[in-house]
């Protein structure tokens, strides 16, 4: 599995990087969100080093990885926090968390200290409102921008999530007598599910494992584990295969929808791939970099960004970084020696008050029925992992990820025996500069308590 995290040079900081033996000088760890390619190496045995994240991510960290409470330090968004960078209280940094518009709990980190100003986006979907954040609006210089370059391809366009959601709604409206199966990974796109539930006045059936996550997120009450009570059902993306589609269709006419920015093509008339992305498009990244004008740019995924981005950077040199002696000593000391400082001098801890669950316009299902067949544990896989595993029965495959076969300068071993049949994709014209939908907690729903 790829590791989408970084150790910040000349500092004791790391973001989404948990391989401690590779960063012995790191003392402060930051988690941008809970997708598994950003938590590689982070387990329940984590100790001696504080983890800073958003309150929502903290809740998921406890639920999914069972990290001990003493190491988890949730920070509220949009508020600056002072953190110690040594064990004597002399040197501090300021960190501000900014909504990343990616998945529940995802944030960007703005670090300020002796090293200058560093903005680490983590995974994010850019929207112009981000530039109105007070911490960015008042800043004249970002010295280093760590950029989520997942979709940084000038030859590829993506619709806004609002446009992609409309495409999905139109597909469902065209098939009023069909059930709908949506293939998703373990975390993300919850706002899409809530919007579809409200639009079509139906419960969304999920597995017991997914329901645990949804309860932790305190989303509107549109989800159920009761089989057959709702028109929409969520499954793991890997379950969208020809055998299952044939099985579902025999029981009840069924559509399968894959909301993903991965370059998949469908080979079944009832399977629709919709380019719904939680990562910024190339044009959005260009707009973001052009507006911020950072002194330097570091890609989070891989080592390269398009040369056209270099033209967006101002011609100025970054000042030389002088690491204070107390910070050098801190980075060389044993982690145990910092327990009395960083663990006990936590930033202002604030009580997280999640949104209360809300009722919906349709009847509640009868509770206490048998468990759903989807109870099997869902892997914490994410869209950006691009897992290359092929089904044990290749003839059962109905999807192929074109990026594995058409990525330039990539050595591909094996015979590439993937099934290729008739292509059917769902892509409608869209404007690349359309208005971008807000994140999960910025959506507005009309609900009636029941």
Automatic annotation (TrEMBL):
Biased amino acid composition, Acidic residues = 375-392
GO MF annotations in UniProt: 5'-3' DNA exonuclease activity; beta-lactamase activity; damaged DNA binding
Q: Give the Metallo-beta-lactamase domain ranges.
A: 25-156
- Tell me its EC number(s), please: 3.5.2.6
Broad class of the protein's primary localization? nucleus
A GO BP entry is: telomere maintenance
Q: Indicate the enzyme's highest-level EC class.
A: hydrolase
The organism sits in which domain of life? Eukaryota
- Which keywords accompany this UniProt record? Chromosome, DNA damage, DNA repair, Exonuclease, Hydrolase, Nuclease, Nucleus, Telomere
What is one term from the GO cellular component aspect held by the record? chromosome, telomeric region
Q: Which Pfam families match?
A: DRMBL, Lactamase_B_2
* Subcellular localization, as worded in the UniProt entry: Chromosome, Telomere; Nucleus
Query: What reaction(s) does this enzyme catalyze?
Result: a beta-lactam + H2O = a substituted beta-amino acid
**CDD domains listed in its UniProt record:** SNM1A-1C-like_MBL-fold
| Entry similarity comment | Belongs to the DNA repair metallo-beta-lactamase (DRMBL) family.
Q: Which PANTHER family match?
A: 5' EXONUCLEASE APOLLO, DNA CROSS-LINK REPAIR PROTEIN PSO2/SNM1-RELATED
Protein name listed in UniProt:
5' exonuclease Apollo
- Name the species this protein comes from: Dissostichus mawsoni (Antarctic cod)
Biological classification of the source: Eukaryota, Metazoa, Chordata, Craniata, Vertebrata
């Amino acid at each position: 599995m790829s590791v989408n995290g970084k150790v910040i040079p000349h500092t004791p900081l790391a973001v989404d990087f948990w391989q401690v033996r590779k960063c012995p000088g790191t003392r402060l760890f930051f988690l941008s969100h809970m997708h598994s390619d950003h938590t590689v190496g982070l387990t329940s045995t984590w100790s001696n080093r504080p983890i800073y994240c958003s309150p929502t991510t903290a809740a998921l960290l406890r639920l999914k990885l069972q990290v001990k409470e003493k190491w988890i330090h949730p920070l509220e968004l949009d508020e600056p926090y002072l953190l110690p960078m040594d064990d004597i209280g002399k040197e501090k940094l300021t960190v501000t968390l900014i909504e990343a518009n990616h998945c529940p709990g995802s944030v960007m980190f703005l670090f300020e200290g002796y090293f200058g100003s560093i903005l680490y986006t983590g995974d994010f979907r850019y929207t112009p409102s981000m530039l109105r954040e007070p911490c960015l609006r008042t800043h004249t210089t970002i010295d280093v921008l760590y950029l989520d370059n997942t979709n940084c391809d000038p030859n590829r366009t993506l619709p806004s999530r609002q446009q992609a959601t409309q495409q999905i709604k139109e597909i469902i409206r065209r098939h009023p007598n069909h059930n709908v199966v949506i293939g998703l990974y373990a975390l993300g796109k919850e706002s899409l599910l809530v919007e579809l539930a409200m639009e079509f006045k139906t419960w969304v059936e999920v597995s017991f494992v997914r329901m645990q996550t949804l309860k932790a997120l305190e989303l509107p009450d549109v989800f159920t584990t009761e089989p057959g009570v709702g028109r929409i059902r969520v499954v793991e993306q890997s379950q969208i295969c020809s055998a299952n589609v044939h099985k579902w269709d025999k029981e009840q006419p069924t559509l399968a929808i894959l909301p993903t920015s991965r370059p998949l093509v469908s080979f079944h008339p009832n399977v629709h791939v919709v380019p719904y992305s939680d990562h910024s498009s190339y044009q959005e990244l260009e707009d973001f970099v052009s507006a911020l004008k950072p002194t330097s740019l570091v890609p989070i995924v891989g080592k390269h960004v398009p040369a056209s981005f270099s033209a967006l950077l101002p011609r100025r040199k970054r000042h030389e970084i002088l690491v204070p002696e107390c910070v050098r000593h801190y980075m060389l000391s044993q982690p145990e020696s910092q327990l009395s400082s960083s663990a006990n001098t936590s930033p202002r801890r604030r009580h997280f008050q999640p949104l209360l669950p809300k009722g919906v316009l349709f009847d509640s299902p009868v509770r206490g029925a048998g468990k759903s067949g989807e109870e099997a544990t869902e892997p914490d896989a994410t869209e950006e992992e691009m897992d290359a595993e092929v089904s044990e029965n290749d003839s059962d495959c109905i999807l192929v990820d074109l990026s594995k076969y058409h990525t330039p300068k990539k050595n591909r071993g094996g015979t590439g025996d993937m099934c290729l049949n008739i292509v059917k994709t769902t892509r409608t014209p869209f404007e690349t500069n359309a208005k971008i939908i807000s994140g999960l907690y910025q959506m507005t729903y009309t609900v009636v308590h029941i």
